[in-house]
Structures are given as structure tokens and as C-alpha cells.
Amino acid sequence: MRGSLLVAGTTSDAGKSVVTAGICRWLARQGVKVAPYKAQNMSLNSFVTADGAEIGRAQAMQAAACGLEPSADMNPILLKPGSDRRSQVVVMGRPLADVDAMEYWDVKDRLRQVAVDALERLRDTYDVVVCEGAGSPAEINLRRGDIANMGLARAASLPVIVVGDIDRGGVFASLYGTVALLEPADQALIAGFVINKFRGARELLEPGLDMIRDLTGREVYGVLPWLDGLWLDVEDSLALDNRPAIGARTPYGRQTLRVAVVRLPRISNFTDVDALASEPGVVVRFVTSPAELDDADLVVLPGSRATVSDLAWLRATGLADALRGRVVLGICGGYQMLARTIHDGVESGAGRVEGLGLLPATVEFAAEKTLGRPVGEAYGCRVAAYEIHHGVVTAEGGDPFLDGCRSGSVWGTTWHGALENDDFRRAFLADVAAVSGRDFTPAPDVSFAALREERLDALGDLIEHHVDTAALLRLLEGGAPRGLPLLPPGGAPREAPDFSHNRSVGGER
To answer: Domain CobB/CobQ-like glutamine amidotransferase spans what residues (predicted)?
Structure first.
């Protein structure tokens, strides 16, 4: 079997990433050689591949669903917002430039071929490539330069399934409207729908499924039930808006350990704390005000794409003062904020800025981004991690801690993913409990890697049990059904980019 398809969504956070991962895991379990792909990703949650390339964290998770080591081809273009108007453009795992929203349109023409070439390499290597769209294909103001949704689907002749989130309401209007707003050539590739996050009586939903089939002439390939506990390497901080405190509230010992994660405006790699929530008796919540720190045994100051700006936000909200005297772990950008001074002529251009002074360290921003997969030791435990930063921190005192330092009840490191190392995580939490005076004992047998595999299998099960998998196979092998009806108004026809010169277009694969 050989083929590809595109998983699009009616909105951001509709479930594209998890549906893509679920299809990948389901196919991999059938023995299919499958890989994920996302042409353009806008996310502050990223990962470093074995050869030092930076890609979206969601694509690394999808690669794990396929049983693969991730590669830059799986996410050739990554946008990392530093403000509402400017983003760092990462191309094939390496930073290219910082551009504003309008400047990116000039860059985009050069990137289109990069994205198509990456997909072509994957299609040459694997039997199936499951592509994920970005945002919504119905963002008609962006269609002219689109390289992630229908522009990609047209370029590579991909059948498209559209995922809608029923939990947020208006799913049928969103599905219908998504198709109706597209121009005819784009509509012809929309094969059908998947409804995500359903909870309730299926009998009440059935009439709507019949009506959307009649109205659009397209199949509803499946209805995925709501599934708790799937906080799995999400790429969008919007997912935090409705995220409750997570973790096991039943203590393993006699007490729970409460972790407060500061939700910075430009928070990055917040998935670092998912491993903490996997521990019995550890409850993790995201906070934005000093009062929310009152009962916290540990405060995590996570990564940031805008260290100096987010440090100013900490001061403006009063959180900077509230951190003093508390048990704190700073990771990457959070570690930089804890230092005495920050010299930033790169990210913000602010020059010398006073840090919080909770750790004896200084920060100097370098033009070259550090990308790596370091290995070290702490608490006598081996620690494998990854790092992504421009800020270079020099510890000038305190006790060594991974690549950073510790002073009293404050720890700092630039390493992401360190808490996924089970022995290290348990030793660190035991130390936190001792410092905070909490009677807490970490469980001895929690494997975060095994938990991630269980979650990926749960996503594969969702596809296997709740989606018409025979129809998915037909799409992969045969493309979008021919003769799909056009919906009024059908969108105003626009001149589509010409990809006819690319090897990935035209002809049967």
C-alpha cells in the first residue's frame, strides 16, 4: 500500500495532531511503514532531533507513534512567535530569520519548494505519509500563500479529512462552512469529516450526521469520544485555556505534592511538566497570579520565546516578588530569568537587564542558537535531555545541577525533557518534598516512556474502534472520491499556486 492524506481541522486545537498521531499508530500496528508530516507549524513547543534539527514537538510525538526517530523532513517549516507580529522562522531545523507577519509573505515563496521537497523525500522513503494541516483551511484571507492546508493538498494531490471539535459547539456549522468557503478545486479534495471530543448520547447525534452527509455529499468517517488524560505533547498553548489541574490527587505516601507552573505570555515547551503529572500524588496546575502560588510546594518557571518581555510580565503581575522564598525550578528561559543579569542584544535587543537574582548566574544571548541532545548526571542518575536556546547561562556559584546550578531551594537548567528520566524525576521530587516540608514519597515504578506509549496506543485505539478504517485505506490508496458536490457559494475562485513542475504532482504514485 502506498499513499498520503491530509488531516485538516475547522479550528486550531480541533484535534488534528492527535488524530494524525492516532492514524499513524493504527497504521504502524498493521505493519505499514508510515511517517508524519506538517509543512508549516506555528508552535513554541519544539524538540531537537538526533542530528540537531529543531521541529515541532507534536511531530516528534507523531514520529514516536510511527516507531520512528523524528527528522526535519517531518516539519520543514516551524514558526516560533516572539510577539503578536514577529516570529522566528526555522527551516529544516535551523533558524533562518526573525520576520514580522508581512515580511513572512516575501519569505513564503522560497519556502514552498522546501516544504514540497521534504514531503517528496518522505513519500519516497515510506509507504504512507499522514500530513497534518495548520489552523483551518477556511482561513480564506491566507489562501493565496498557503503551503500547509489546501495549497499543500493541491500541490501533492492529497485527499483531505476535516476534524471538528464538537465539545466547543457549532461543529456542523464549522464543517459545512469549512467546505463552502473553499474554491471549487479545493472542495474537490475534501473527502469527509471526523468529529472529535464527543460526549453524550450517540442517538441524539445521529440525525446531525445524516444531515451533514446530505448537505455536503461527504461521509462522516468517525466520531471520536472524549478521552480524559491525553495531555500528550500538545503544540498550541491555546490548549491550556481549558486545561484543569492534572495529576493523581490520591497520594502515594501520606500527602500530595502541589506544583504550580507559571503560564508566561510566550510560554514554550510547557510539556516539560507532563512527566511531573504522571507521578501518583503530584498535582500540576498552570497559574498567572501571585495568590495561586500560596499552597504550591514547587513553582516551575518554564521556557519562554521572549525571556526579557516575560520577565517584565512577571514583575508587572507581582509574580516576581511572590517567587522569593519559594521552592522554584527554572527551565531554559525560566532559568535565565532567575539569573542576576541578562545581556540580550539578540532576542529582544534590550541590552543589559536585571534578572530576578535568585541564582548566582549571568546570561549572555548569542546569535547562534544552541540545539542539542545532551546527556549528564544528577542525584547519581543518568539524564538525557534536549536544549534549544540563544541565552547562554554562566553559573558563578551555587551547587551544580545538570548544566545549571542550585542555590538553596532554587534550581535552574537549560535542559528540556530532563523530568522524563524516571530515576532523576523521583530523586528531584523527593528533594523538593524535603525542602518544602511535605510528607511525600514518589512511587518507585512509574515509567513516563511507558505512559507515553499507552497514550499513543489509546489514540490508535480511537481510530481503530471509532473510525471507518476501510474508508481511510481507500482514501490513502485512491485519493479523494471523484464527483464530490460543490457547496454554494463555493468560494470566490482564486489563482492557485502552480506546482505542476514538482515531481510530487501529477501521475499515480
So the answer is: 258-423
Domain count for the chain, please give it: 2
Q: How confident is the model over 150-164, as pLDDT tens digits? A: 999 999 999 999 999
CA–CA dist 190, 183 (Å, integer): 11
Among 131, 389, 405, 416, the active-site one is: 416
Q: Do 211 and 95 fall within a single domain? A: yes
Q: Are 359 and 220 members of one domain?
A: no
Residue 248: exposed, middle, or buried by beta-carbon count in 10 A (0-12, 13-18, 19+)?
middle
Both 210 and 131 in one domain: the answer is: yes
Query: How far lies 130's CA from each of 235, 371, 419, 473, in Å?
Result: 17, 27, 30, 12
- Please list, residue by residue across 478-504, b when 16 or more beta carbons sit within 10 angstroms of its beta carbon and e when fewer do: ebbbeebebbeeebeeeebbebeebeb
- Asked if residue 30 is part of any domain, the answer here is yes
Domain end: 442, 468, 500, which one?
442
> Do 384 and 373 contact (CB within 8 A), yes or no?
yes
Distance CA 72, CA 195 (A): 30
Which helix (DSSP H) or strand (DSSP E) does residue 320 occupy? Answer: helix 319-322
Kindly report the backbone phi and psi dihedral angles of residue 126, in degrees, each rounded to the nearest multiple of 5, phi listed first.
Answer: -115, 155
Q: Which backbone phi and psi does 333 adopt, to 5 degrees? A: -55, -35
Q: What is the pLDDT of residue 229?
A: 66
Same domain, 91 and 208: yes
390 an active-site residue? Answer: no
* Burial group, residue 155, by CB count within 10 angstroms (0-12, 13-18, 19+): buried
CATH at 307: 3.40.50.880
What angle, 0 to 180 degrees and rounded to 10, lies between the N-to-C axes of helices 57-66 and 16-29? Answer: 20
Catalytic residue among 66, 131, 332, 405: 332
pLDDT beyond 90 at 316 = yes
Query: Does residue 501 have an active-site annotation?
Result: no
User: For residues 272 and 140, what is the distance between their CA atoms, to the nearest angstrom?
Assistant: 35
DSSP for 400-429, please give it. EETTEEEETTEEEES-BSGGGSHHHHHHHH
Q: Are 338 and 401 in contact (CB under 8 A)?
A: no
Residue 18 shares a structural domain with residue 94: yes
Q: Which domain holds residue 336?
A: 253-442
Same domain, 430 and 460: no
CA–CA separation, 126 and 51 (whole Å): 20
CA 480 to chain centre: 28
The 10s digit of each residue's pLDDT in 202-228 is: 999 999 999 999 999 999 999 999 987
Alpha helices in 70-189 (DSSP H): 101-125, 150-156, 171-180, 184-187
Asked if 361 and 406 sit in the same domain, the reply is yes
pLDDT grade, residue 241 (50/70/90)? Answer: low
SS3 content of the chain, % helix, strand, coil (to 5): 35, 30, 35
